[in-house]
Recover the amino acids of this structure.
């Protein structure tokens, strides 16, 4: 019996490896783009807030509403609804690369809120001290807010990454592939529990590794 | 160096208006250490934070080094702030930066070149006695060391004024003294004008030249520290003075004042070198009276000793009166607490 399992897995290994790569590819690229969008958005949400260094309540409200709306979409629906936009950006609505667009759009507001929370934890006294030294808004963002919040932002990025891995398992719906898709195709539809269990194990390992790396980096940046 | 005129600050909130400062005027001369003392909620923080516009005054004028602060544009204000150092009760150091990088921070802000930054920071850490901690992080320092970093950081851009917001309130007494000494030292060495707020009279007495007492957003008394200490006019001022010098008559002596006795009980107060002892001994010599010293204390504000002595003068009434008349002529403040029978 164990022999059967191994030979079965051996024949499927190319597909398992391919699916693992697809998951990693979708996740890493989406986290990258989501951070590129979400971090500036989070920063703007903080500095334009009441009493902060660049108070602008109108802008704050508008951006806050957009973030809330995007965050309230279930990912599956967002993925389908974004079809036309995805085609505009990557030229197709199906495939692994096409999945990156809705993943990014879903994760960016999530990143923004996490970054917002991290930056709000920065000791306000330090911001005031910087103002008293004549620092500009940009200098405070770059030299004070972001570095001081770095450990917290890294942990937030870890959470984002793990969340995106979760979302990415739904990518099969638009032909995105990945481990989730594999588990559904073999495990759910063909009752191939060996594949199902194996994909789950791989996902668990990936999540564990990401969490550990996140904790490690956060600790490295934490000077408290 | 700093001139504040008719400064009013009103906080408008949901709960209504709070008048934190009510037409405050004061003047800080170049090179002096000016202390502002008041109880909690008196408006001290608001006042000092108005000087560098961390708080926008509702009305009034603030002139620092000839520059009106209230009308500056944002970029002008930033340039001006680089020349106004500030230290804080809770230090407010960047936890993600080393001691060295913290002191370098204001220099980076003002665009100083790397090589110059290295040189300046090294010198500043030397000045505050933390050269060996350059690569430590704030979390690895004691409160006193953190404040030294704060001071080095505040001095980095060669400020014209140093603002201290309760700089020693989070420190123990010994550390407080060492930080105050450092500030005094810097004040002398660099001829740096310092404006500090505190609720501790000890801070005022140890290093300030002038003092203003603030209560309910108003300055209720102001002047040279030695004058305010020895002749406090306002009851709040007296309360502050009493936290460090006991000008009260002790209970034991108070009881004695009520008893009948033949001697006169007199309180002598003195300031400066004009101490009371030689005067007392000459009373005995010249007026044929006996002198009993009941109570005395001597304090020192910076370099000026001052204090009081309560004596009982025993002898013939005429002699005692002559003795008192003599004492009055010696430039001492005399109060007869109990006359002879
Ligand atoms: N941001 C604010 N909004 C509303 N009211 C304020 C604000 N800051 C201070 N106040 C009020 O202004 C008054 C003066 O406050 P301030 O902080 O200047 O006092 P303080 O003398 O520094 O007191 P403490 O010794 O407790 O620090 C207080 O009544 C306070 O409640
Ligand atoms: Mg205060």
């Amino acid at each position: 019996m164990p022999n059967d399992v191994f030979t079965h897995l051996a024949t499927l290994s190319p597909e398992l490896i391919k699916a693992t790569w697809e998951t990693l590819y979708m996740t890493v690229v989406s986290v990258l783009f989501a951070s590129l969008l979400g971090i500036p958005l989070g920063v703007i949400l903080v500095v334009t807030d009441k009493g902060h260094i660049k108070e602008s309540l109108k802008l704050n409200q508008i951006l806050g509403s957009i973030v809330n709306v995007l965050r309230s979409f279930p990912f599956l629906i967002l993925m389908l609804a974004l079809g036309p936009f995805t085609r505009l950006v990557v030229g197709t609505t199906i495939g692994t690369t096409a999945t990156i667009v809705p993943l990014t759009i879903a994760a960016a507001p999530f990143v923004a809120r996490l970054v917002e929370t991290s930056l709000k934890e920065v000791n306000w006294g330090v911001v005031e001290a910087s103002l008293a030294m004549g620092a500009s808004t940009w200098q405070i963002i770059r030299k004070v807010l972001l570095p001081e919040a770095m450990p917290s932002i890294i942990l937030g990025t870890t959470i984002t990454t793990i969340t995106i891995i979760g979302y990415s398992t739904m990518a099969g719906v638009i032909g995105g592939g990945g481990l989730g898709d594999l588990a559904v195709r073999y495990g759910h539809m063909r009752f191939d529990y060996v594949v199902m269990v194996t994909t789950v194990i791989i996902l668990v390992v990936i999540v564990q590794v990401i969490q550990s790396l996140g904790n490690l980096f956060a600790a490295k940046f934490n000077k408290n | 160096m700093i001139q504040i005129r008719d400064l009013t600050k009103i906080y408008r909130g949901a709960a209504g208006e709070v008048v934190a400062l009510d037409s405050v005027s004061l003047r800080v001369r170049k090179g002096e250490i000016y202390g502002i003392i008041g109880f909690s909620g008196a408006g001290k923080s608001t006042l000092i934070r108005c000087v560098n516009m961390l708080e926008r005054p509702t009305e009034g004028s603030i002139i620092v080094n000839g520059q009106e602060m209230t009308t500056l544009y944002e970029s002008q204000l930033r340039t001006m702030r680089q020349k106004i150092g500030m230290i804080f009760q809770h230090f407010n150091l960047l936890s993600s930066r080393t001691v060295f990088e913290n002191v370098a921070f204001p220099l980076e802000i003002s665009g100083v070149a790397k090589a110059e930054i290295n040189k300046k920071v090294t010198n500043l850490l030397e000045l505050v006695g933390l050269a060996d901690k350059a690569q430590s992080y704030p979390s690895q320092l004691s409160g006193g060391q953190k404040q030294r970093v704060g001071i080095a950081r505040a001095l980095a851009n060669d400020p014209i004024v140093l603002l201290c917001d309760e700089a020693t309130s989070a420190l123990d007494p010994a550390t407080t003294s060492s930080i105050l000494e450092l500030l005094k030292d810097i004040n002398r060495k660099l001829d740096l004008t310092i404006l500090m707020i505190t609720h501790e009279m000890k801070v005022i007495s140890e290093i300030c030249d002038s003092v203003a007492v603030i209560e309910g957003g108003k300055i209720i008394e102001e002047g040279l520290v030695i004058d305010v200490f020895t002749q406090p006019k306002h009851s709040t001022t007296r309360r502050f003075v009493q936290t460090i010098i006991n000008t009260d008559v002790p209970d034991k002596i108070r009881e004695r004042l009520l008893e009948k006795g033949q001697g006169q009980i007199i309180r002598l107060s003195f300031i400066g070198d004009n101490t009371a002892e030689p005067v007392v001994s000459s009373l005995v010599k010249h007026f044929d009276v006996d002198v009993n010293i009941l109570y005395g204390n001597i304090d020192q504000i910076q370099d000026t000793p001052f204090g009081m002595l309560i004596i009982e003068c025993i002898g013939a009434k005429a002699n005692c009166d002559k003795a008192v008349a003599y004492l009055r002529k010696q430039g001492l403040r005399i109060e007869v607490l109990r006359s002879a029978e």
